[in-house]
Every structure is written in structure tokens, then in C-alpha cells.
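I am still learning, so would you mind making up any protein sequence you like and the C-alpha cells describing how it folds?
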Amino acid sequence: MNFSLHTTFPTELQDEWNDLLAESITHVPFLRHEYLNAWVDSGGGGEWPPLQLAILTARQDGQLKGIAPLFFDAPNRRLMLLGSIEISDYLDLIVCPEDLDAFIDGLLDFLPGLPYEWQTLDLYNLLDTSPSLPVLRAAAERRGLNLRLETLQHAPCIPLPGDWETYLASIDKKQRHEIRRKMRRLAESGVPNRWYSVADRASLPGEIDAFLWLMEQDPEKAVFLTPAMRAHMRRTIECAFDSGCLHLAFLEINGEKAAAYLSFLYLDRLWVYNSGLDRRFMEYSPGWVLLGLLLQWANETGLTEFDFMRGDEDYKYKFGAVDRSVMRLTLER
């Protein structure tokens, strides 16, 4: 494989990049060309200073075979994956399974020649099932390099049976009763209510404003939503809509938005990214109700998985999620 270094984001590779991602060992929305382009432009929503890109591509007979979407964190002398750390739940190298060993061998041979004084290859947010992990370990051992692996966070998900009643029967009896009770209480309250997902591009700016307002009702999320992060979130939502994978859902009670879930509808899965709610409506449990409605819709639509992504909040397991983890792999020169 012939490796090349890109120090600016390769906008011309969009089609090749996404085509390779579709066949890659890890296919997640956070590795799409559009998402990472937006992430680079905003420095991860202000998480990073101006980035020194070190995006590596590998070709064989002219065909794109692998991408290591990296940047150089100069103060800590490390190479990291674009998307690190806070706002991209799952990351990885982009390479087909049959090319993984050759790509990683070539990558580790190419990295020492980069024009950066890096000491560590520091890869965040790899799923614990990523094929990269054992291949990187074996390649590091062959070279006598020090590799460490640590668990960062839980990333629970719900495999969907495709039927609402079958799904409910699969979870704890007490929680099943609680979900039914809260959904029924709102439905039978006589208070006007409805849920919907945003489908109109013209209305999207106002819907984004409403979602961000609901997010910032949580004091921790209000701190998170700096001006730079708000601008990044807006661009990410618009990008997802334009790519056909946005699922921005609202629950309205008495004509007002009471809860919202921002998700990606991608690869027959719902990837739940963030949420917000108006505490004035807590008597109706709007967060739980909307989550139940989304799960019912996801089952009836034929989706295969409801991915809560990073975070071990208790409610995720009450809804029947099974556990997974995201990992951090560090490799010292």
C-alpha cells in the first residue's frame, strides 16, 4: 500500500471516503466524511484549538484501501483520531476487513516518518468489538512497542425484535409496567399531545433552536452549550438532515414542546445522540414517554437496533439495554 499524508481536510475524497466506510470494519455516522469535515471546521465545537491535520490514506493500484483520520495534539505530543474526544461516540480506522492487517502494518511503518514530534498514538472511543484492537496489539508486539488498552465508558444498546409487544415482554416486568403506565397516563389525560420527527428543511432552523433550548434546561448541558458548541451542533444537525439520516423527534403537550431526542437514523438503527426536556411538564414524564414512543416506532418500522451510545445512565438499562463499552488504545513509540 502507498500511504499519503493530508494536512488539509480532503474534501475531494468525499465519495471515495464514504464508499470505503460502507465496507469498513466499523461503519458509524461519526466517521462519515461530512460529519468529520464539520468537526474539523469547528475544532470539535471548540474542544480543540486550530487542528494540525495528519490524515493518512493508503492506496493500492490506485484504489483507496484505508484511512487513518488523525490529527496532531502538539502540547501532548500525540496523534489522535478526528472526532476525539467528547462529542463523537464511536471512532475507528476506516478499512475493509480483508485489508486490515496490511493497512495497520503499513500505517505503523509510515507513522515514524511524519513531520510531527509525536510520542503516542492515542485512539479514543473504539468499540470493544472493533477488529482494530487485536490487530493493533499484534502489530505493536511484533515491533516491541508498548500498547495499553483501557475501558472508557459504557455504550448500551437495545437489539430490536421488530414487534412492540415482543420488545416489552423481553424487559423486566416492573419496568414494562412503568413504561405502559406512563405512556397510558398521558394518552388518557385529555391533554392534547403528539409526537413527530422533523421532515421539513424549511422549518429546521426553528426546530434546532427549540431543541437547543430544551437541552439547556439541564444545567450541565447549558454549560456544555458554549457558542462554539451550539454552532457545531447546528451544523451537525443540518448536515445529518441533508445526508438523509437525521431523526429529530419532539413530544408536544398542550401545544408546547415538552421533550426531544436528537438521533441519527442510519443503517437500520436509531443512534440516540442527545436529548432535552421542559421540566414544567414533569408530571407527564415526557422523556420516558417520548422514549417509549420512539421504541414503539423503531420496532414497528423494522429497525434492528436502538443504540443509546456512550453513557451508563440508569434509564437505559430499565428500557432493556445490553451493555457494551468504548475503549482507549494508546501506543507509545
Remarks:
- Residues 227-242 form the longest helix (16 residues).
- The mean pLDDT is 97.
- The two ends are 22 Å apart (CA to CA).
